[in-house]
Amino acid sequence: MIVAHVKELLADINVEESKQFTVKVKTNAESYSDDERQFWRYQSRFTLEFCKALEEVLPTGLAFLSYNHLTNDLTVVRR
């Protein structure tokens, strides 16, 4: 349930032309909304489910490498 909701709240992930890169994770929820607060609550309290959602929404050709919940950095690699 948490994974599905995080996937709905995630904004598109922008990628560069390198083999491995790090991006900041953002939400598409409205600022100061309940959805935005819930997104960041999931990020801080349900890190494993949050990472699972990140992995599931990655574009084809990208693989999840790591996620730093303290700095909100997602590192991915091209397959």
Short overview:
39% of the residues lie in helices and 23% in strands. It has 79 residues and is α+β, with helices and mostly antiparallel strands. α1 (2-9) packs across α2 and α1 (2-9) packs across α3 (47-57).
Principal-axes geometry comes out as: globular
Count of discrete domains: 1
Average pLDDT, all residues: 91
* Tally of contiguous helical segments: 3
Radius of gyration: 12 Å
Q: In angstroms, what separates the terminal alpha carbons?
A: 28 Å
Strand order of the largest sheet: 1-3-2
Count of DSSP strands? 3
Strand content: 15-25%
Q: What is the percent of helical residues?
A: 25-40%
- Low-confidence segments, ≥5 residues, pLDDT <50? none
Order of helices and strands: HEHHEE
SS content category: alpha+beta
Largest sheet: 3 strands, antiparallel
Brief descriptors of the model:
79 residues, alpha+beta, three-stranded antiparallel beta sheet, 3 strands
Task: Give a structural overview.
There is one protein chain. With 79 residues, this protein is of the alpha+beta class. It has one domain. It has three helices and three strands, in the order H-E-H-H-E-E. The protein has a three-stranded antiparallel β-sheet, covered by helices on one side.
Task: Give the SSE map.
Layout: H1 2-9, E1 20-24, H2 34-45, H3 47-57, E2 62-68, E3 73-78
Antiparallel strand pairs: 1-3, 2-3
